């Protein structure tokens, strides 16, 4: 799997670096006829757990999210990215109970604050360490997600 800028274990990268390399990576994919998926909204860089095996919590306050995590997403959305994948991570400052994948509050930021009107895809809703219920896919669609990955019916 190709990755533009992602190193969960090296710590947070500058939003400017992520934005610059992310734009170049997305442009290269589009030039090759591939539609890029912007991920993992609203951020995954400050986790130390693999969200396919555990449910990470990122305890940043709203000011930090707006200053560091959201700018690369805003830039990509302004550049016309067509799809965004949510993170299966809890951001208590946005929603203390639900991971971003299942959170109306998180999707509201993506849709209303950042103005994204494209396709929203969940990260894998099966196999994450939070004991996702069989209704997780339905719940994700209820809060505004367009498609789910890893869904078992």
Describe this structure in words.
The chain is an alpha/beta fold and 153 residues long. The protein has four helices and four strands; from the N terminus they run αβαβαβαβ. It has helices spanning 15-31, 62-78, 104-113, 136-143; strands at 37-41, 83-86, 119-124, 147-149. It has a four-stranded parallel sheet, covered by helices on one side. It is globular, with a radius of gyration of 15 Å.
How is the topology of this model organized?
Elements: H1 15-31, E1 37-41, H2 62-78, E2 83-86, H3 104-113, E3 119-124, H4 136-143, E4 147-149
Parallel strand pairs: 1-2, 2-3, 3-4
Helix pairs in contact: 1-2
Give short descriptive properties of this protein:
four-stranded parallel β-sheet, 4 helices, alpha/beta, 153 residues, disordered N terminus, 34% helix
Mean pLDDT comes to 77
Name the overall outline.
globular
- N to C succession of SSEs: HEHEHEHE
Fraction of residues in helix:
25-40%
Tally of individual helices? 4
N-to-C CA distance: 26 Å
Kindly report the spatial arrangement of strands forming the biggest sheet: 1-2-3-4
In this structure, how is the largest beta sheet organized? 4 strands, parallel
Number of strands: 4
Q: For the CA atoms, what is the radius of gyration?
A: 15 Å
Low-pLDDT regions: 1-11
Compose a concise summary of this entry.
Helices cover 34% and strands 12% of the residues. The protein is of the alpha/beta class and 153 residues long.
């Amino acid at each position: 799997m190709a990755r533009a800028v992602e190193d969960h274990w090296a710590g947070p990268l500058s939003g400017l670096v992520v934005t610059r390399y992310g734009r170049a990576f997305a442009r290269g994919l589009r030039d090759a006829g591939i539609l890029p998926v912007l991920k993992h909204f609203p951020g995954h860089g400050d986790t130390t757990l693999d969200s396919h095996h555990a449910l990470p919590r990122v305890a940043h306050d709203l000011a930090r999210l707006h200053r560091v995590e959201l700018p690369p997403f805003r830039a990509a959305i302004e550049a016309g990215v067509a799809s965004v994948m949510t993170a299966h991570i809890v951001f208590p400052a946005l929603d203390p109970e639900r991971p971003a994948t299942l959170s109306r509050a998180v999707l509201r930021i993506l849709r209303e604050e950042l103005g994204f009107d494209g396709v929203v895809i969940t990260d894998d809703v099966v196999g994450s360490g939070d004991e996702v219920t069989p209704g997780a896919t339905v719940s994700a669609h209820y809060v505004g997600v367009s498609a789910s990955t890893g869904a078992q019916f």
